[in-house]
Amino acid sequence: MSAQLDQLTAQAANDPDSLETKEWLDALEAVIEFEGTDRAHYLLERLVDLARRRGAQMPFSSNTAYVNTIPAHLEEHCPGNLEYEERLRSWMRWNAMAMVVKANRADGDLGGHLSSFASLANVLGIGFNHFWKAPSENHGGDLLYIQGHSSPGVYARAFLEGRLTEEQLLNFRREVDGKGLSSYPHPKLMPGFWQFPTVSMGLGPLMAIYQARFLKYLHARSIADTEARKVWVFCGDGEMDEPESMGAIGMAAREKLDNLVMVVNCNLQRLDGPVRGNGKIIQELEADFRGAGWNVVKVIWGPGWDALLAKDKDGILQRVMMETVDGEYQNYKAKDGAYVRKHFFGKHPELLKMVANMTDDDIWRLTRGGHDPHKIYAAFKNAQENKGSPTVLLVKTVKGFGMGKSGEARNTAHQTKKLDDEAIREMRDRFAIPIPDDKLAEIPFFKPSDDAPEIKYLHERRAALGGYLPSRREQADEKLAVPALETFKAVLEPTAAGREISTTQAYVRVITALLKDKEIGQRIVPILVDESRTFGMEGLFRQIGIFNQQGQLYEPVDKDQVMYYREDKAGQILQEGINEAGGMCSWIAAATSYSSNNRVMIPFYTFYSMFGMQRVGDLVWLAGDIRARGFLMGGTAGRTTLNGEGLQHEDGHSHVIAATVPNCIPYDPTYGHEVAVIIQDGLKRMVEKQEDVFYYITIMNENYEQPGLKPGTEEGILKGMYLLKEGDQNAAHRVQLMGSGTILRESEFAAELLKNDWNVAADVWSCPSLTLLARDGQDADRWNLTHPLEAPRLPYVTQLLKDTQGPIVATTDYMRMFAEQIRAYIPNGRTYKVLGTDGFGRSDSRVKLREFFEVNRYYITVAALKSLAEEGKIPASVVQDAIAKYGIDPNKPNPVTQ
């Protein structure tokens, strides 16, 4: 007997008044029987409260017994035709297996996963057949975040529904020719099918929480009726170790997201082995979620255990269930009934007596709750009807259920994608798949005729729920017009003499104008992560309010101020606190509202650029996959712009990260008029044309005079480069200076130095998007490669520079790699020098930082002169003279290494 059982037995033996104990327990039993569990719960809470107030030490536990939360007598049974549903699940299991195994017999490197769907088949089947509604006239549709590794089973279902063809299944993970199916849920690759990407793991739970809150936001603001809709998210128990999986569960409870259901597939295994071999992952997760305020429903044991638990008058079975660790449970399902009898029931002689009349096969058929349709249905029903809190279903399953010795409950199950002939035969027999022996080697898909009763039933169930899922809307039905560029007149005109503003201030003026627009003003979603005052956006608090479902239950301390902190039930701002990942998930929910809700929303998520692209880079990549549309605004951008904050705050690489996402449109504007032109173009592309792109725009907090928009330069701004200032035509020599962000102004100052000190003319080019210039060049290269008989195309940057004179110097507040993107498209024979801010940031003034990183006006001037010297236009001594004149230390350490 274990130490835990010894302790419990000793406690019973040491009871000083067992008769009194029995009276209390009998009284509680009577309350439960005649007045219900709610009354019993109330009385117990009152008793515990009284004991604590009288000084008793009441140990806290957020765990319940290791049994099903819903007792057998309270289960609501599944109303469906379970015979048909079982056959349909079996066919789906077979087709999912056939799809993956056939793919890997043809090409052993394609991979694929069988075991996750094998464990989830019953759970998904109950949802698809009885709960999940598709969009219809009366319902906006439920939103499904499907566990990524279970995608083969979802494809297998769609195949039986006639939504996917056999050719598509044969091209599983073969997408290049446009006929295949993506490995995981990828809306980018299957835009009409998958609603949401759910890998990398951990991102699904995090996104789902903020998606559920966004549905509440839309409803509170009367933009869409989302009252009846649910967000369902499926994840694995191993996945719950990802910080993102658990990071927002407190917010979900605080916001009372009763439209959210998280289903954790507790098959006790991750890729390498058990999730908690020495512990109990279900109990651990129960404590976490119950402690956070969730409605927790455990589905642990199948119906065969109900009778045994009913016999367990002394609680011995429950104690053994509790003390048995997950590593043991995994082992039981990898062995047989005799092993379970000896190693589980053999832990106590009373348990052996309890199963004495059961055969080893009977014991083996004691299933886990996640494989019983009634247990799952009851749990889903509880989740659907629960009010006031989010629900998590902790569903115990067997990894690789039905895969036999090839993978069932084994450490190798996750990676198993090739089954031998014997394993395939066993699976055929176990699930009664009507395929003859002489066809088994072909592993054929099985699909009965359309008039088969099971197939008719499959279609009837989905018709009753409004249509097929998963299914994704690619365009919103509504058409919205965006304001003309002239709407942003305040930032298009030059600032008055002596008046200075930053691009952040220009952005705030743009968004303020948008909020006033009658057509799209209500669709703007400002998203902030506790930095509103940093960006000068606190004026929006009072103007449009901060969304809070409870409204404002207190009088704000700054109520006497013009820009006081105002929360409102219909507030327009999403204020996420110090939480970049949450801000990004809210942005994704809004940026995909056109698809999820048939409502075009326009999110502007404003953040410290260092804490945006770098911190949530995985979610930014996912935004590309999910075809997000919106604006990411990277504030205080650049390595030398945010003076005083230091290494962890200064961004010199966000644009390098942004360049890796193909449908991200990145800009690093210098002037307010550029910001306005870019945002207005983004609105036209994403709202009017409904293009699947999103914008990353960096903005700075450095104030300077604004030159205003020069008519005719709009195209160059959007393409990424235009001539800002032309140098003196009569100078002896000429150079081309390129730049973006605040460092472009250093190039402008360098042009003055070159003219006044060295009689060198400089043309100054504003380059709001070096990345778009690079992409344009790559596109031209590809065209020229594949069309050798056609007239070659010239990249845009080449067209602009080909008729200019002199070497070219590009300087930015980012790593040299940023401007190096376009080197291949500089006209042949031209010198191209790049200055950038490689290395760690540090705290100092902007002047000192730009000197340290060697991107100030003096270094730009020296670089231009050095380039002229290398071309033989001027003596090298001139460069030395400039170094001395500007006080540059030639022996200064390289900032990259400092």
Quick overview of this protein structure:
With 898 residues, the protein is α/β, with parallel strands linked by helices. It has 36 helices and 18 strands.
Gross morphology is elongated
- In terms of per-residue confidence, which ranges show pLDDT below 50 for 5 or more consecutive residues? 1-10
Q: Share of helix among residues?
A: 40-55%
Radius of gyration: 33 Å
Biggest β-sheet, characterized? Answer: 6 strands, parallel
* Average of per-residue pLDDT values: 94
Number of strands: 18
Given helix and strand content, the structural type is alpha/beta
- End-to-end distance, in Å? 63 Å
Per DSSP, what share of the residues sits in E-state strands of 2 or more residues? 5-15%
Strand order of the largest sheet: 9-6-10-11-13-12
Please tally the helical runs, counting DSSP H or I stretches of 4 or more residues.
36
The oligomerization state is single chain
Protein name: Pyruvate dehydrogenase E1 component
GO molecular function, one term: pyruvate dehydrogenase (acetyl-transferring) activity
Domain PH: 1-33
Catalytic activity: N(6)-[(R)-lipoyl]-L-lysyl-[protein] + pyruvate + H(+) = N(6)-[(R)-S(8)-acetyldihydrolipoyl]-L-lysyl-[protein] + CO2
Key structural traits:
898 residues; alpha/beta; five-stranded parallel β-sheet; 36 helices; oxidoreductase; thiamine pyrophosphate
3D architecture notes:
By secondary structure, the chain is α/β, with parallel strands linked by helices. The strands form four sheets. It has a six-stranded parallel sheet, with helices on both faces. It has a five-stranded parallel sheet with strand order 1-2-3-5-4, with helices on both faces. Helix 4 (82-106) packs antiparallel against helix 5, helix 4 (82-106) crosses helix 20 (453-464) and helix 8 crosses helix 24. The model is unreliable at 1-10 (pLDDT under 50). Keywords: Oxidoreductase, Pyruvate, Thiamine pyrophosphate. Its cofactor is thiamine diphosphate. Its EC number is 1.2.4.1.
